[in-house]
Amino acid sequence: xxxxxxxxxxxxxxxxxxxxxxxxxxxxxxxxxxxxxxxxxxxxxxxxxxxxxxxxxxxxxxxxxxxxxxxxxxxxxxxxxxxxxxxxxxxxxxxxxxxxxxxxxxxxxxxxxxxxxxxxxxxxxxxxxxxxxxxxxxxxxxxxxxxxxxxxxxxxxxxxxxxxxxxxxxxxxxxxxxxxxxxxxxxxxxxxxxxxxxxxxxxxxxxxxxxxxxxxxxxxxxxxxxxxxxxxxxxxxxxxxxxxxxxxxxxxxxxxxxxxxxxxxxxxxxxxxxxxxxxxxxxxxxxxxxxxxxxxxxxxxxxxxxxxxxxxxxxxxxxxxxxxxxxxxxxxxxxxxxxxxxxxxxxxxxxxxxxxxxxxxxxxxxxxxxxxxxxxxxxxxxxxxxxxxxxxxxxxxxxxxxxxxxxxxxxxxxxxxxxxxxxxxxxxxxxxxxxxxxxxxxxxxxxxxxxxxxxxxxxxxxxxxxxxxxxxxxxxxxxxxxxxxxxxxxxxxxxxxxxxxx
Length: 502
Hints:
By secondary structure, the protein is of the alpha+beta class. The chain has three domains: 47-223, 2-Layer Sandwich (Beta-Lactamase); 226-255; 256-499, 4-Layer Sandwich (Phosphatase 2c, domain 1). The protein contains twelve helices and 16 strands. A six-stranded antiparallel beta sheet has the order 6-15-14-11-12-16. It has a five-stranded antiparallel beta sheet with strand order 2-1-5-4-3. A hairpin with a 3-residue loop joins strand 9 (352-360) and strand 10 (364-368). Helix 3 (34-102) packs antiparallel against helix 6 (192-224) and helix 8 packs antiparallel against helix 9. The longest helix is centred in the first third of the chain and has 69 residues, at 34-102. The two termini are 59 Å apart.
């Protein structure tokens, strides 16, 4: 264990232990001033040598770092610039085709306002210099932006090809209806991003060179301030790690601990791909039943975990405050709050696949929301049925009321209901093959007579064994109905499901 600051000897004790204790005395046979002067010179020389050593070390380190930056900058921009050029070229070609398709009706009826309106978001794109629409004879109908002087004839090159000049790329496409050419649309794309990237590369290389030279001159001063920035960076890294650990503990701590629901034997497991995952499941017991939620935030990491926390909190509040509401009512309200939070506050375009189920002790399950298919393994037949979940993703649209409806299934005694996230079915083997629904259904059918905990463990074990590397969160929720609902035969189910292949 490292000693504490209080247990370490002082710098004076490390250099001159005897002086620190007050026991040193000059010898009577030599002048009293001799030994202290010699010691002072030795200490001064040692301090100077240490400073020189540190200066040389720091200078060498900075030179090496500058060289590394030089290599990395050239390597990174060697990859980025071609990719950026390819993106701009694709945008020019594809944009011209899209604009030609959207402007065809406006060109056909020679409606300038309609043509301008068809330019849509291209008009505000910082990469677009100009958009020009002409009729089939080449007469300009509409022009947006400012054409570079060096462009010349817009339609000189064949359609779909690129024409390049200093600072711009041009492509054009024909606007057609039923195979008849009505006009042409030319799109001029700025290469300012590409030029800026090249300038940035040169500036970074110059900065690295100047930094190397400056390090040789100011290394003495740098030594004095070296530990400060290093400690600051270390503290920031530790703080970030602590924050991730706290978020991880928050996520795991809000998983349901009470799953004693009348008529259901429940088991669930979740393995996050990162420190904080985006998968969600919850069980909220109520009188003669429970609310059950299952969802998956797009992606994973800290932001996905934050959105998952929002889902859990909102659902918990809604189920407690609106006891008579249907799953559809709560899902649409949840979507409205998530849309405002994700789009308005987090400024991101994430979405959530989510289903909310209202289980009743008589075996009926009402559900709403778009997530993975619900699997029901029937005790009467031993076969797994797929129950589709309809609707739209949460957070993608402000209002999903028209696209969200309640659906219902009926569980018979001994039936097993399994909920899961796409991390299960999309888990990939070393060869890239997905685990898939068929393997999942086979695993459930193979262990259908076992307790819910064993079914859950078997599925999780099969999935983790299937994938050498976990790319997504994996969640499995198993509930066996053991209530006194009506026992049904193989032909008595009251809804349509898919049996067999998915």
